[in-house]
Every structure is written in C-alpha cells, then in structure tokens.
Amino acid sequence: MSRQPIERTRRNILRTTSALLAAAAGTGATVAAQSQYPAWDASTAYSGGDRVTHNGSVWEAEWWTKGTEPAESADAWTKTDPASGGGNESSGTTDCSSVSAYDSGTAYSGGDQVTYEGSLWSAEWWTKGTAPATSENVWTKQGDCGSGGGGGGGGGGGGNTAPSATFTASESFPTPGTSVTFDASGSSDADGSIGSYEWKFGDGATATGQSVSHTYNSAGEYTVTLTVTDDAGASATFTRTVNVQSNSGGSGKKRVIAYWRQWAQYQREYTPDMIPYDKVTDVQYAFLRPEKDGSLEFLHANGGQDFYGSRFMHNGNEGSFLKQGAVEDWQNVGDKAFSAQAQMRDNTNFIASVGGWGDSEYFSYVAQDPDKRKIFAQDCVELVESYGLDGIDLDWEYPGGGGCTSASPVCDIDNVSQPGDQKAFTKLVKAVRDALDEAAANDPNRSEPYVLSAAMSANPEIVKGLEHGKLSNLLDYTSVMTFDYRGIFSQYTGHQSPLKANPNSPNKNPSEFNASSALSWYEAQGWNPAQLNMAVPFYGRSWSGVKPPKGDFGNGTDDGLFQEYTGEGKDASGDGSYPTFGDGGTNLGGIWEAFDLIGNGRTGSNPVDLGSSDWTTYYDDVAVSSWSYNPSKGLMISHPTQKSIRKKMEWLSSSSYGGTMLWAIGGDTKDGKLITTLWNTLNR
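User: That's the sequence. What structure does it adopt?
Assistant: Structure tokens below.
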C-alpha cells in the first residue's frame, strides 16, 4: 500500500495562475496593485494568500511565514507582478456570458471559471463547497462581469445583465421510483428579477417553477437542464447529470477490506490464520508485481521471486500459476496459508493485490502493450484459479506518475511513467475484467463473477486524468487511499488521515486534503458512492523537533498540532516502528504501527509509552483525528485511536459509501483493538 505523501514537498506544488489570468483580462499596472498592499515587515506573521510589497514588487505568501524576506529564492513567497488587485482579485471588467454560475454542489478543478455575485472567479485547485471570496485562497477574482451575467445565456439588450442559473438535486444517485427535488433558489439576477424557470429532465419530461420534483422510472444517466429568464428577456442555462441506479437488495453491510502484508510473517509474526475473519468482509494479499513482459510474479528477494516469503500464498502448491517447476515441501505452511484459508471460508472474499508503492515499477510497460496486457490478464486468471481466490485488486501507484522515483527519499526504484498511462490503465482494467469474467463463466463450480477492484490516490491532482466513467463501469469498487496527507514532507505537523478539514491548519489545502473531500471528489467524477471505500490507517506518522507555537498560530497552544518542526530526514521524524533510512529504504521514517503505540509492542521496535506522564493524547473533533505529543522530547505522532476509529465509522455508517479499507491488519494490537472497534461501529 502507499506510503506516498499526498503533499510531497514543503514547497507549494500548486502555484497560482492569477497573474497570467489577470494579464489576459486586461488588468491594471503593477503600481496600482502595490498601492493596495502593505510593505513587508520582518516582525509580522503572514498566512498563505497574504500579499505584501517589497523591493518594488507584489509578493504572495505560500504558507505561514515570519521573518523570511520575499525573494525569488524564498519558497515561502511567490512574486505576483504584474498584478492588479487585492487578495486573490483583479480589477477591470470582463465578459462572463459564456461562464456558468458557481454551484456549491459542483466540484471544480484548477483553471475552472465561474461567476458569483457579479464577478468572474477562477479556481486555483480542486474545490467543492467553498464559495468564491477574496478571503479564500482557492479562488481568484478575475474582474467584474461587464457584459452578460454568466451561465451561458443571451443578453437582453439595453445594458441588461443576464441572470445566473444554478440548481441542486436532493439525490445524486436515486433509484427508480424515488422522487428527486430540484431547487433553483440559488439562481439570481443582478439587475432585476427572474421571471421564469424551465426544466428538462432528460427523459422527455418537463416542468416549470423555482423548485420542482421529478421521479425517474428507469435506471440510466440523465442530463437535467434548467433555463432561467429574467424580467428583461435575458436567459441563462445550467445542466447537471443525475445517475439513476438500478434497485439492489442486500443486508446493507458495509465492506471492511483488510490488507495482509506478506512480510507481516516476520518480526510481527502475523499470519493469515490470525486474521479476525468475523470482523472483515474481504482480505487482500499484498503484493504481487507485474514484470516487463506482462507476467505476474511474487515479490522479489535476492534478485529472484521470493518463494519463501510468498509461501503463505502458494503454500507449496505449484498449480498452473508457478512456471518455475516444483516447489519444496518446506514451503507448505498448512492451514496458515492465505490460499488455505480461502478454501475454508465461504463468507469472506480473498483477493490478490498487484502493485503497491514499491512494486508498480513496470505497470506502464504492461498497460501500453496489448500483448503484455493479455499475458497479465491471463496470469491473473491462473493465479485466482490456482489458489481458489475470489478476485484481483490493482494498486498501480500511479498511472501518469507521482509514485516511486529513486530521486525521492521514499524510494530506491523508478516506477516507469509514460504519456498515455492513464488511458492505458483503462485498457488494462478492461483486459483483466474480460479475462476474469470469461473464466468465471467457464467454471462450472463458480456461481458468481470474480471481484475486480483498485486502490487509488486521494489526491485529485494525481487521478484527475483517469477515465473515471469507464473505470466505474469496469471495477466492482475502488479504495480511496485517504491517508498520508501529512508527514515530514509537510511544512508543519498535522493530521495524516483526517476525516474533515480543521480551519486552523496552516498546511496547504486543508479543505481538500481530508477523506470526506476525497470521497466527494470521486463521487463528482461519476462514481456510485456505494463503490467507494474510505481508507483508514492502522499506523501513524511522527515529527521530531516540534517547536512551541508563536502567539495564536495553529491551535495557539503547545499541543504538538499545526506547529513547526526542525530537521531533515530521520532527524525530522524520529524512528518509528521500523526505521528504514539508509541503503534500500523504501519508506520515510517515523511510521508507527498501532501494534507498538497502543499495544504492548515488539522487542527492538523502539516503542513509546503513551501512557506515561510525558505523553498526552488528544482528539480533534473537527478533523475527527487523534494525536499524541511529548513536549519534553518535541515528538508528535498523528495516529489512530479507538475513539478516532469509532467516530470515523459512525460517520461512514450513516453515509452512502460502500465501506472501508484498512492498511494493514498486521498493524493492529495483539487483541485487535482497532478492528474490533471498527467492525462493531460500522456493522453493528
């Protein structure tokens, strides 16, 4: 599973484009802009988005900073000249007639434009539910609308400003026979009033009125169109899609997907027979890997396949999958094997996961070559048939790049990345889907299709180029990796897996870097929420050299959260459960398993005693996350607790999402504190 940081560097990877957009809109000169901003003061603390003048230029703070002089070499500052305007704002007027009005229910990506309260705004990065305002760094005001009012309507002449159209739907994924309410009360007219509201529901039906209801009789995708006309005859339109889902039965039980890491057999001594099968619905073996020729192999060791490490899958059974010849009797581990457990348990799905953070090296070669896709898909079939498994999980990190590179401190290999990877991923998924479906249909002993799933990044910037509409039709579900949001790759300490955004966070993108936002983003791409699993980590991330806050920065108290820290590499994180700095390291240090933090730990793992007087454990009821802090050591650890797990599962149980994925079951305490709390809350 991923150990890839979502925020990969302390530098801002989402540089604003407001200066270029402002220039295209014909904005004023630098001198005019400078008159609106204070001069930089070394003793003043600035937050991300604040602007100052210095040495004849306008500069914008990328994050909280104090005492760092604005300069081209200073990462904390970005030069915005030529600029015109305030905060994220530009002067002048512009034609908004072809731009839709802002809709709080719509997800916007960087570069998208909307009209709002008579002005044109551009999104700096992905956002949903944050209304345009100069105080919101995610939006840049490009100017006032001078002709047309946005929404794609025609003008009414005589200087009349066209209205803006928008609406919300009470259900995004209704089932046939469910009444859906469409509300256009958010539509407006800046210089008059709206005289009429006309609706087309995409199935031939129409209606009029500000708020209407409609019932779809059949499953399908429908485009709903609203046209509003103002009292001077100008009009605007707004459309959105409603996906009507087929009725489905079921007990309503949420998925609980647990990864079992084949290396958990070593120091942790956690084998597949120890998994609490009464508290999971699916278990996933981590990992196998794709090779250059498209073949599927067990993880490598000493230059070859690790048949010893992988014995808990093959269990000494050659089957049709292993092509290297007979295996040795000593590789048989009996009923402890993953494959043996699969034969014993009909109520649990046993899935083989391919890839992961350190073993996605050759996915690109395979996905882009039709012959290699065929080999890969056939190996997937032979794997599930040889060991009696229920399906395949694809964990390519990541199509299009953003995964392992040898230049990064978190890897010692280069995952191949090529143009076209994201569309090639769709082709690879389809090849596996077709092969698994054919195999299931030809197996007289199998009564249901094989499962095909994927694990995907929670960062919209990494996955925005994927063909989500096609993938959602090919995959049974996807697990969104909603962890590793913060770590020593972040500017400040923070929550590594928050459910919600805490506005006190000084780190970049707090409104987007949280689980609820990530799930909403996927839903906005067309995924049925029942297909989406929210990931929870059974581990934490730490920071060392944590410094007390200055004034009211962050939480305004020395509790370890949202604070500065010092050092680089290991010196910035502390050791963690399994320090991996040095030659061959594939993880950042400072990763602490719950097994050590809230259990009795293991010998030689440098466990901390969170129960001692040196430590205090806190809970953030806004972000729904926990952390522990030792001020005398300056060590802060963002980690799960039974309370944070319970609160997350309470939220998930009342949602329409399909379930949860946990990384990894071997990281739990010996008595299963976290998985017991998770299951009893989610599926009680």
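The chain has three domains: 13-142, 168-244, 255-537+641-682.
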